Amino acid sequence: MSDRIEVLKTYKTYVGGKFPRSESDRTYKITDPKGKQIANACRCTRKDVRDAVVAARSAFNEWSNRSAYNRGQILYRIAEMLEDRKDQFVKELEKSGTKSKEAMKQVEASIDRIIYFAGWTDKLSQVFGTVNPVASPHFNFSSPDATGVAGIIAPDEAPLLSAVSLIAPVLSGGNTCILLASEKNPLPLVSFGEVIHASDVPGGVVNILTGHHSEMVDHLSAHMDVNAVFNTTAEKETRKLIDENASISVKRVTHYPETDWFNEKHENPYLILEFMETKTTWHPVGN
Amino acid sequence: MNAVTIPDFHQTIPIDKVGVEERMARLNKRSIKKESKLQGLKLALSMIDLTTLEGKDSEGKIIQLCNKARTPYTPMPDLPTVAAVCVYPNLVDAAKKALRGTTIKVASVAAAFPSGMARLKDKLEDTRYAIDQGADEIDMVISRGEFLKGNYSYIFDEIAAIKEACGEVHLKVILETGELETYENVRKASDIAMYAGADFIKTSTGKIQPAATQPVTMIMLEAIRDFYRNTGQMVGMKPAGGIRKAKEALQYLVLVKETLGAAWLTPQWFRIGASSLTNDLLMQIVKQETGVYQSINYFSND
């Protein structure tokens, strides 16, 4: 019978292995489908994008130089940790209006998806690397190499599963990323940051920002230090903006306007290749 | 120095540590935006002593560094050049040749840099050699061991002797504040250096951590201000080491403006010893001009 006012959590961002608030100090309300406020989230700005890119860039060398096998182990560890905290994620998804059964299905699919991509890390160059016949005394071979820092623009549908499906292929190739979490339902993503933090993933490899995409996409896609954009927005104007901005530094752009995130087609090694460069080596050999 | 009485260096000028740090924090909150930010960034660029002081330096490295000094960023030819390059004495000649036709100065460290552990005779020899090679400015480091022993007259005489060897050549005296232990010592060493004839006082060699910090710089700037009030002579200031970000550079400019006034805000009286700061300033300048955040991959290493 107390008049206690519930404390609403303000979810923070995840940047460079830390959990800072937005540089702007602004927050916005997260509501459930009925319009009731359930939490606050940081409303990030271009400056948070800038800081996140710095963090992602400085983490890149270490992450891409890890052995593929070790990257696989770490991704697997994320899945383990997520499995361990399943209930929390189910609860968070329920809060924002997902039905219990659906929420459990989503969390489980997320775990499986991470494991799928964990398996690919050390098989990628075996499957997609080639030895090329050339008309000179050279041993010539090509292998996929991480492109660098990727910006990921996540959708509102299945907020956890969709983001995981986007992050996992990017990470498994050795890239680092900045994720703009779902605008409407960022909560499970911020918690996912905590899982990543507890899973041996070096700080800065995954950076998660919340807020209005319209305030961040422009700067993220124009940033010279971002090498790829993974976009799920179907909206024409935004896609055009991303394409134009990406052309400044010739970024790889993958538009991926999906809605059904449970579909198995998202478990697909070609998604990893979207964020890889082909490195070809010419090695002289004697005859 | 005739009319000026040299103070008793055994007297300690107390420094309010909390006060210094609070004032620093307050000044750092100042926001500099848009046009004034761009001007500030360009000013900071023009104040850089582009430095390379590594055992592995060679003529080739110096030529590359000097190219960076002349043309910091090729797509923007109108940018100011840096103030000087700072090298070891045996590379002064290479730097002089590479900078021919520009107004960029060549500064040389000398006098048993970075330890300062040598006989005065050798230090003078080292200094004369650097000047013979064509150095426009000499960066020397005080003997911290003697200073901490309280042998202030030794420090004073050493600086005075090296200044005499320098003649018209500018002398920057490095206090190596990271080894002076207290703020009071920083103040005392600043006073000794200035009364002994330093044209510039400089925080650090860059070989000892912590190098330049803002509180230490503030104390040295206040020493310069008091020296100016007592003698009417201006002395320059050079924080060096550890300044890597454009934002910090702007904070230093604010500090100079607030402590000494605009008269000191020129490359003649204020320098920043740095190397990687140059590219960060350039990235911020290009960001201001284009609105697009930049990547270090598009800027030449020096």
Description of the structure:
The complex is a heterodimer of chains A (287) and B (302). Helix content of chain A is 43%, strand content 20%. Chain A is α/β, with parallel strands linked by helices and 287 residues long. In chain A, the strands form 3 sheets. Chain A has a 5-stranded parallel beta sheet with strand order 8-7-6-9-10, sandwiched between helices. The model of chain A has no long low-confidence stretch (mean pLDDT 94). Chain B has one domain: TIM Barrel. Chain B has 11 helices and 8 strands. Chain B has an 8-stranded parallel beta sheet. The mean pLDDT of chain B is 90. Chain A binds chain B through residues 49-50, 53, 57, 219, 222-225, 248-249, and chain B through 291-298.
Q: Estimate what percentage of residues of chain B fall within beta strands.
A: 5-15%
State Rg of chain A.
Answer: 20 Å
Shape of chain A: globular
Identify the biggest protein-protein contact and residues per side.
A-B, 11 and 8 residues
CATH class of chain A: Alpha Beta
Mean pLDDT across every amino acid position of chain A: 94
Class of secondary structure makeup of chain A: alpha/beta
Q: What gap, in angstroms, lies between the N and C termini of chain B?
A: 41 Å
Shape of chain B: globular
Question: What is the domain total for the residues of chain A?
Answer: 1
| The top level CATH class name of chain B | Alpha Beta
Whole-Å distance between the termini of chain A?
A: 90 Å
- The residue fraction in helices of chain A comes out at 40-55%
Instruction: Kindly report the CATH topology of chain A.
Output: Aldehyde Dehydrogenase, Chain A, domain 1
Detail the poorly predicted runs of chain A: none
Task: Count up the helices of chain B.
Answer: 11
CATH superfamily of chain A: Aldehyde Dehydrogenase, Chain A, domain 1
Output the helix-strand order of chain A: EEEHHHHHEEEHEHEHEHEHE
The largest beta-sheet of chain A arranges its strands as 8-7-6-9-10
- Give me the secondary-structure category of chain B: alpha/beta
Radius of gyration of chain B: 19 Å
